[in-house]
């Protein structure tokens, strides 16, 4: 289909031949757009041709060089690995053997040279024999180390002539892998012009074709543009202007055109309406149109304006201004006006709502980052001020701060928990102060009525002013203006109130502000209640755990002990420690850690600690104590899995624990220990040297069936044994190796410190800023029993020697100044030795230990344990252990690898008298009376 312009075509419109030639020639006129486009296309085609030729030359040279490198490496490695090459290099005349082979290999492989040389670089072969025996030109050091060297280098003349030499150097090794020589092969890369010149006609032909297409395209575009710009008839142009005028006056934007001298040339109907222009405004100066001064100055100035807002009567107009002829001297400007009055109102409300939503989002992110009640209250105050209020105070019930369940009885007294805003110098109640609100105050009313209260003018709030008249007067003088107080409620339980204040510099609160404050307080109340409940549960767990841990040091002579226990911030764990006195003045040290946290972990820790006490009372070996604990943990797991009682409760899952158990003997100075998955202890010698004793790590408790290895250490007197849980040396910021190095650094030089000072130094050095795990630390400094307070001797298995045992006991007690205990001690020792001789096996040995108490020990080779019983009146014996039990504070039996030890302890001083008061002589003699006599 053909499209005609407004005028009919006629033969007269076709130009003569000369005019057509002038139009064809105009293509080369650089002042025309067609000529400029044609010139640009020519330049682009020429650049593409040059780039193609350059890329071809470079790629050809690169391919030739790469091929030379590859062929050199293949030729050198083939010759180096050929049979007999290594033997020839080690022969008396390598050249005689290798020169023919090298020339044959050079000709077959197509390389320019194959050189065999010794490890010093002396040539054995070369295409020209006069170069044999000279030094090789190139790098050989990497090849002597077994690597292949590829490089570009120069050297003596070659048959191939001049060019770039690409050579590879490879090692020649013997049967043992030793480098006995080197082989180098190379190629001379010649001029590559012969490779790219044949491609030049193709490139030039493509460029010529592209240039021809460019000329044809430019011609077609030029003819079409001329046809579109010069083919319109006058009627069509008039119609075009009519359409332009109709559109100009029907759009909802005002359009003004001003001349360079400030006269108004054109104004459409919308501009006349928006500016209230007179009917004869066209052609008059802008300053005479009665416009507001800012608008008149804007229309008269030549400056460019983009979306500026100006008032014109009661309308808010968005103004844009651009020059009409920026490249000529005619000047003038075109101005567009858009009425944004309604849009501004809607946008203002939308912006206000967006700001409130952003503030609620910030509150959701910033409030409740921790489980601390006071910190959460402060986060609420910081979020609301100054975005919503100038001053924010948060008052909480005292029970909430303590973690208790709040009650209505505590409403009258609230504690100031947080203050936010720049007006902190306002005369308000300070942080931590208990405030007793009266019934008429907005705070008390909001608690009672369970809704927010809005006080637009605090000067009229008689209840608020009556709470503290002097403080209220000063606050009003400082500019306090309005108040919104909202209750903090969660789960329908009141927690406190939050007070939002504004000063005279801010607008007073409105009803929309009250609704927003209630929404903000509702979100914050949930976070505060979560923190309160966590505080309660954490306090309960800490109380439970502390009640299960030692509260004081037991009486013992072996160790000077100090400890630290720091519960985790996020929840109580199952760390525990213990100091258990054992018979024979020995002491057991226990350090353990239950997997998990919370009440379940604390309860499990209590069960394990009780079990350790029971096993220690039986005086079991170290590995058997851990083995029994392992069986107990396995049984606890089986109990949890057997029923549905614990389902859904905290701590559900497999119970696991680690434990370190050590027994120290102050008489021998030895410490026997084993650990089940627990961190290794640290020993600090008296000179301050810090060492890890190397206790083998066994499997944690709860896996079942694994043995526990024992280590026995000999500790010097004054050494410190440091036990700890993993919370001390491991946290999220670093691993356990870094923590162990920090522990050793903190303990270094602690030989002269007391255990208390050592504990404090370690905690100060290693305590993290926020502990995510419990920390238990136990430091024990060793003591030794002086040899003067230890008496021991062997007893032959003869009952007639018992009197001599009593005599030696009496003599020893006299040396120690314990004559008042001689009777009871002789009686105890006599009974124990008599039983050992009658019912035990040799050897029988007696040991007396004088320390905090007097300890009598009788050992024999039998594994049979005596038992206490009440003898019948007709029995001739059976009352010996009864006498021992009455005269001793406590007694018992412990087993050794060579038999057993029966021991008895007696209190010294006032304690001995008190103990004797419980065993009157008449009562004892009654055990031997015959009622039939």
From TrEMBL:
Pfam families from the xrefs? GAF_2 (PF13185), HATPase_c_2 (PF13581), sCache_3_2 (PF17203), SpoIIE (PF07228)
Q: Where in the cell is it found?
A: Cell membrane
* Transmembrane domains' residue ranges: 38-61, 200-221
Protein name (database record):
protein-serine/threonine phosphatase
Is the keyword Transport in the record? no
Function field: Primarily acts as an independent SigF regulator that is sensitive to the osmosensory signal, mediating the cross talk of PknD with the SigF regulon. Possesses both phosphatase and kinase activities. The kinase domain functions as a classic anti-sigma factor-like kinase to phosphorylate the anti-anti-sigma factor domain at the canonical regulatory site, and the phosphatase domain antagonizes this activity.
The keyword GTP-binding is annotated on this UniProt entry: no
Catalytic class of the enzyme: hydrolase
One GO biological-process annotation of the entry reads:
phosphorelay signal transduction system
Principal location: membrane
Q: Which residues form the PPM-type phosphatase domain?
A: 556-782
Keyword set, alphabetical order: ATP-binding, Cell membrane, Hydrolase, Kinase, Magnesium, Manganese, Membrane, Metal-binding, Nucleotide-binding, Phosphoprotein, Protein phosphatase, Transferase, Transmembrane, Transmembrane helix, Two-component regulatory system
- Enumerate the CDD domains for this protein: HATPase_RsbW-like (cd16936), PAS (cd00130)
Q: How does it sit in the membrane?
A: Multi-pass membrane protein
What is one cellular component GO term in this UniProt entry?
Answer: plasma membrane
Which residue intervals define the domain GAF in the entry?
Answer: 372-538
User: Region Disordered: which residues?
Assistant: 1-21
Basic and acidic residues bias: where? 9-19
Provide the reaction this enzyme catalyses.
O-phospho-L-seryl-[protein] + H2O = L-seryl-[protein] + phosphate
Positions of the PAS domain:
242-307
InterPro entries cross-referenced by the UniProt entry: Bact_Sigma-Reg, GAF, GAF-like_dom_sf, HATPase_C_sf, HATPase_dom, PAS, PAS-like_dom_sf, PPM-type-like_dom_sf
**Which domain of life, per UniProt?**
Bacteria
For this protein, the Enzyme Commission number is 3.1.3.16
Organism of provenance: Streptomyces filipinensis
State any single GO MF term: kinase activity
């Amino acid at each position: 289909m053909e499209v005609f312009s407004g005028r009919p075509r006629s033969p007269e419109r076709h130009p003569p031949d000369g005019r057509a030639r002038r139009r064809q020639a105009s293509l080369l006129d650089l002042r025309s757009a067609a000529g400029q486009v044609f010139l640009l296309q020519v330049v682009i085609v020429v650049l593409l041709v040059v780039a193609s030729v350059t890329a071809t030359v470079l790629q050809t040279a690169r391919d030739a060089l790469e091929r030379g490198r590859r062929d050199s490496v293949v030729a050198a490695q083939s010759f180096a690995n050929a049979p007999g090459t290594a033997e020839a290099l080690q022969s008396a005349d390598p050249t005689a053997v290798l020169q023919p082979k090298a020339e044959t290999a050079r000709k077959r492989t197509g390389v320019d040279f194959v050189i065999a040389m010794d490890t010093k670089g002396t040539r054995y072969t070369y295409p020209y024999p006069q170069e044999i025996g000279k030094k090789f030109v190139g790098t050989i050091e990497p090849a002597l180390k077994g690597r292949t060297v590829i490089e570009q280098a120069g050297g003596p003349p070659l048959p191939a002539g001049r060019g770039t030499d690409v050579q590879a150097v490879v090692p020649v090794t013997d049967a043992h892998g030793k480098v006995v020589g080197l082989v180098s092969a190379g190629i001379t890369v010649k001029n590559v012009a012969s490779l790219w010149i044949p491609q030049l006609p193709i490139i030039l032909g493509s460029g010529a074709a592209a240039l021809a297409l460019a000329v044809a395209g430019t011609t077609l575009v030029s003819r079409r543009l001329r046809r579109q710009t010069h083919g319109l008839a006058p009627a069509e142009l008039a119609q075009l202007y009519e359409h332009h005028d109709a559109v100009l006056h029907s759009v909802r934007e005002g359009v003004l055109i001003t001349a360079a001298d400030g006269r108004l040339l054109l104004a459409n109907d919308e501009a006349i309406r928006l500016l209230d222009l007179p009917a004869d405004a066209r052609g008059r100066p802008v300053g005479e149109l009665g416009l507001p001064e800012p608008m008149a100055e804007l229309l008269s100035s030549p400056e460019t304006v983009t979306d500026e807002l100006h008032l014109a009567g009661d309308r808010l107009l968005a103004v844009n201004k651009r020059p009409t002829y920026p490249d000529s001297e005619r000047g003038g400007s075109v101005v567009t006006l858009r009425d944004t009055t309604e849009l501004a109102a809607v946008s203002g409300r939308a912006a206000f709502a967006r700001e409130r939503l952003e503030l609620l989002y910030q509150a959701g992110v910033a409030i409740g980052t921790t489980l601390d009640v006071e910190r959460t209250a402060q986060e609420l105050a910081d979020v609301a001020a100054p975005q919503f209020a100038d001053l924010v105070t948060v008052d909480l019930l005292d029970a909430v701060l303590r973690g208790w369940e709040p009650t209505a009885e505590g409403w009258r007294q609230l504690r100031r928990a947080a203050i936010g805003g720049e007006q902190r110098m306002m005369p308000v109640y300070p942080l931590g102060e208990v405030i007793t609100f009266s019934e008429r105050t907005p705070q008390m009313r909001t608690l009672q009525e369970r809704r927010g209260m809005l006080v637009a003018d605090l000067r009229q709030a008689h209840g608020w002013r009556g709470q503290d008249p002097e403080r209220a007067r000063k606050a009003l003088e400082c500019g306090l203006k309005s108040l919104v107080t909202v209750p903090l409620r969660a789960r329908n339980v009141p927690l406190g109130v939050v007070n939002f204040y504004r000063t005279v510099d801010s607008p007073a609160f409105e009803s929309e502000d009250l609704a927003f404050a209630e929404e903000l307080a509702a979100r914050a109340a949930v976070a505060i209640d979560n923190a309160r409940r966590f505080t309660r549960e954490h306090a309960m767990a800490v109380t439970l755990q502390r009640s299960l841990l030692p509260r004081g040091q037991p009486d013992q002579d072996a160790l000077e002990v100090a400890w630290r226990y720091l519960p985790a911030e996020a929840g109580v764990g199952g760390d525990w420690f213990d100091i258990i006195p054992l018979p024979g003045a020995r002491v057991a040290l226990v350090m353990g850690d239950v997997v998990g946290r919370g009440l379940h972990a604390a309860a499990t820790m209590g069960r394990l600690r009780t079990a350790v006490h029971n096993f220690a009372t039986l005086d079991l070996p170290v590995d058997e104590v851990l083995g029994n604990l392992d069986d107990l943990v396995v049984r606890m797991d089986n109990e949890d899995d057997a029923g549905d009682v614990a389902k859904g409760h905290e701590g559900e899952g497999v119970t696991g624990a680690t434990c370190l158990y050590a027994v120290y003997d102050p008489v021998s100075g030895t410490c026997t220990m084993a650990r089940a998955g627990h961190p290794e202890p640290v020993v600090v010698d008296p000179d301050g040297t810090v060492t890890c004793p190397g206790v083998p790590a066994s499997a944690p408790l709860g896996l079942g069936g694994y043995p526990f290895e024992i280590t026995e250490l000999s500790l010097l007197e004054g050494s410190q044994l440091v036990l700890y849980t993993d919370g001390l040396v491991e946290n999220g910021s670093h691993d356990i190796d870094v923590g162990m190095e920090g522990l050793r650094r903190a303990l270094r030089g602690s030989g002269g410190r007391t255990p208390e000072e050592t504990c404090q130094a370690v905690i100060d050095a290693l305590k993290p800023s926020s502990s995510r795990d419990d920390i238990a630390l136990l430091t024990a400094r060793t003591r030794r029993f002086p040899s003067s307070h230890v008496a021991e001797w062997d007893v032959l298995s003869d009952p007639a020697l018992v009197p001599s045992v009593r005599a030696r006991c009496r003599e020893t007690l006299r040396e120690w100044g314990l004559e008042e205990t001689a009777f009871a001690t002789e009686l105890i020792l006599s009974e124990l030795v008599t039983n050992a001789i009658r019912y035990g096996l040799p050897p029988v040995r007696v040991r007396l230990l004088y320390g905090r108490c007097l300890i009598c020990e009788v050992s024999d080779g039998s594994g049979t344990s005596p038992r206490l019983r009440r003898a019948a009146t007709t029995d001739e014996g059976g009352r010996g252990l009864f006498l021992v039990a009455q005269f001793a504070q406590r007694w018992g039996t412990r087993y050794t690898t060579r038999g057993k030890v029966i021991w008895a302890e007696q209190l010294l001083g006032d304690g001995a008298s008190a103990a004797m008061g419980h065993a009157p002589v008449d009562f004892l003699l009654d055990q031997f009376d015959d009622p039939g006599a």
